[in-house]
Amino acid sequence: MISEKALIARLSHKQSCIVEFANNRFLLDASGTIFWPDFDLLIFSDLHFEKGSFLSQFANPLPRMDTRKTLDNMQKVLATYQPKCVVCLGDSFHDGNAISRMETSNIQLLNSMVGSVQNWQWVLGNHDPEIPKEIAGESFVSLKQHNILLVHEPEDLKKINEEQASTQTITAQIIGHFHPKMRTKQSGHSMSGKCFIVANDVLLMPAFGQYTGGLSVDDKAIKNIITEKPAQFLLYGQKIFNIR
């Protein structure tokens, strides 16, 4: 787990911020990740490994270095937080054939990272309905942690609570999939970038992958699942800003 000294430094430099969500305390990080101290748990979302090589099949001029850059960025976050558990919230691989295009060195690096933590869990997404057998870790459709569902796309919590045998009621969910982004102006300065959206029972994560676009916070798809006015946390210049 991250040391108290390192945490204070990140908070003071606006590299992370503390939020209360569904009666739990989280650290939203400027890297686009979430750290849940109570469970020593680090959450990534939407890595989209091998998106560059996928697009290059259709004469897209993007360089095919996105997977390595994403892995390098993951290593930095892992080194900072030193978590016991990691959850990746779906669309970790851009398509079903991504592993066949992934360089051997990148597969080895990824498996090394997976092996460096006690528990690494892959949540399945619409781009990766299964995790390649070459990759270590466990995979799940969704995960329940305390009173929160960790999932790629929104789920019906009422239905889940009716079906589950556990006495712990799921009251909120942390979701990937939407890649939220925003644009704002602060003190006359325009800023735009990926963002977190935190509502009463829904927290949307930004995409972590190198070549991931996104949906505006004003997009209908996002407004359909968040009806109240949420808090928005913009990632800009390697810092995180709470936009009121």
Automatic annotation (TrEMBL):
Source superkingdom: Bacteria
Pfam family name, one: Metallophos_2
Q: Cite the InterPro entries for this sequence.
A: Calcineurin-like_PHP_lpxH (IPR024654), Metallo-depent_PP-like (IPR029052), PdeM-like (IPR026336), Pesterase_MJ0037-like (IPR024173)
Q: Where is the Calcineurin-like phosphoesterase domain?
A: 41-185
Q: Which SUPFAM superfamilies match?
A: Metallo-dependent phosphatases
Gene3D superfamilies named in the record: 3.60.21.10
Q: Which NCBIfam families match?
A: P_estr_lig_assc (TIGR04123)
Please state which protein family the record places this protein in. Answer: Belongs to the metallophosphoesterase superfamily. YfcE family.
Name this polypeptide is given? Metallophosphoesterase
